[in-house]
Structure formats: structure tokens, C-alpha cells
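Predict structure. Input: Inositolphosphotransferase Aur1/Ipt1 domain-containing protein, 276 residues.
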Amino acid sequence: MLATEEISTTAYEINEKIVQKRSNLPISSWYLTPPIMLFSSWFILNFDYYALKDPILVWKDLLAWTSYVLGHITVPILTSVWLYIFHEPGAVKSYGFALGFQNICGVLTHLLFPCAPPWFIHMYGEDKVANYDMKGYAAGLTRVDIHLGTHLNSKGFHASPIVFGAIPSLHSAMAVITLYFITYFARYRIIKVLSFLFVVLQWWATIYLDHHWRLDLFIGLIYATVWFSIIKWFLLNKYDENFIKARLNYNFKNGSTMGMRVFRNTNLQWFFDPMA
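Output follows.
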């Protein structure tokens, strides 16, 4: 346990840093990530397509599966835990709302504006009349089933109720909105860079596996950008302001993270402090 005087001194020093920063934004926030991604996406998508799509190799199949399937499931969960433990009250709620609303809008778009994925055109040709009696297809993921000796991917996509849900790519939207939250909150540059590389990897995987066109991925980026902007305007700005006010008023309950509360009055408290 730390002495009361030591705790007070550290809290005062951190508050002085907050005052000097003169902003409610998290420390080291890359708040310009959304416009940068919008302007750079054309180059990234074309690099993924022209430089990395071919040839088809076993290690590329497994890497694409790891990102497209495992990453799509685990990255949002890990990001939510990270936001909850290390960042201000309301951060994980904002991330959840952003993911939820963009996914609802994405599924509604799939139903109202069905679009065929690349594998459909490559399998049936451009003149094939599409209908929902057709079964889904795992496309490049069928190769992974062969490598791993399973039928998990093939059976999963075969049972999918939305066969023509190419636009928007929710894999793209999830990766991009996760990037926005990580670059907004993370203090360390390496975490921000890794989240950007995950977007690049996820875009490549969807193209390589024949699941999405580049346009699908770009529109997924648009959905993520719109919903991040809305959530930031209506929720994040308020949470940022309340968190800073609580810190400056030495209100520990509202000015601390979950990790800080668990390890209160120990050296580990400052490890979980995003302002330290």
C-alpha cells in the first residue's frame, strides 16, 4: 500500500499535466485517424489487391483465415476488455454502441440492397440470376478446411441466411472502427500501429479469400467513419469532459478506470491510469 502523501503527490502531478494539456482529449490521441483513413484507403486497397492477392499459397490461406475468422471474433472482445480496464467510464459503452449501430445498418443494407460477392461472379458468371434459394459458399476458406481437415468453414457459410451481403463489408467496418477507438484512446504508438496493420491485413484477407470487392471494404470504412463520428459527438466528448473534470476535482469514483479502482492505493494503480 502507498502512503497517503505519496498518493496525493502523484495525483497532483498528474493533474498538473492535465491542466498543461488544455484539452479533454486522451493523451497522445490520434483524433485525425478517420480523415486520414478516408484519403489513404484507395492506396491501401489497391496495394492489397495488386501486390498481395496472388499467388495462392498455404501460409497465405492460414494467415487470411486467422485474420478473417479468428481476428473478426477476438479483436472486438479484446478491445472491449482493454477499454473497460484501462480507460474512462463510458469508453467501452461508446465502442459497443458504435459497433452495434454500424452492424444493424450493415445488415439492413444487406437486406435492402443485396449485392453478390466476388466468388458468386467467379462461380456462376455475370449473367446468372441470383436468388435466396442459393446456398452460401466459403470461397477461399474451403482451402483452409482442406488444410485443417475440417468442414467448419464450408458448413458455416453454407448455412448463412444472407448470401448477398457484400456491401458493406462488416469485416472492414469492425476493423476500422476498432482502429478509430484504439488510436483515439491508446497512449502507446505500437498499439496504434498494430491496429492499423490489422485493418490492412483484414482488407487483404477479404480480397484474397474472394469474399469482398474493394468497393465493399471502402463502404465498410464509410459506415465505421460515420458511426464513430456520431458516437464521438454525442457520447465520447461528454465522457472525456466528465472524466477530466472528475480528475481535476479529485473525484476518484468518476475519474478512474476499472483497473485503477481494483488496484487503488498500490503502485499498480498508476499502470491503469490513462493520464499518468
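The chain has twelve helices and no strands.
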